[in-house]
Write a structure and sequence with these properties.
about 100 residues, mainly alpha, two-stranded antiparallel sheet, 5 helices, globular
């Protein structure tokens, strides 16, 4: 898919992310009193994916997603908690299974 700039890239990543939600575990605390304390995180960030030309389907892949505390996600400020090599290895292993 074609996209213009980061905002277009982000929209496409979000489409893949939404599709991936059915493959990842439910958000912690969704049924309890902790609702809203977690956010879905892209371990290899969207901005870094854009800067490095990573296809949006890889950034929105279930292997790149995890629920983390909101304050932890906000403090990342675009930093990655996984390398691109690590992500690609997880995605490729997942494709084999």
């Amino acid at each position: 898919e074609l996209y213009e700039g980061f905002s277009g890239y982000s929209i496409i990543v979000d489409r893949y992310t939404k599709k991936s939600l059915k493959y990842i575990s439910e958000c912690p605390g969704v049924r309890g009193s902790r609702r809203g304390q977690y956010q879905l995180d892209h371990k290899f960030s969207k901005i870094q994916g854009f800067l490095e030309g990573v296809p949006p389907d890889i950034i929105g892949h279930p292997m790149n997603l995890e629920w983390i505390l909101t304050e932890e996600n906000c403090s990342k400020r675009g930093r990655c908690s996984i390398t691109l090599d690590e992500l690609m290895e997880k995605v490729n292993v997942n494709k084999k299974n």
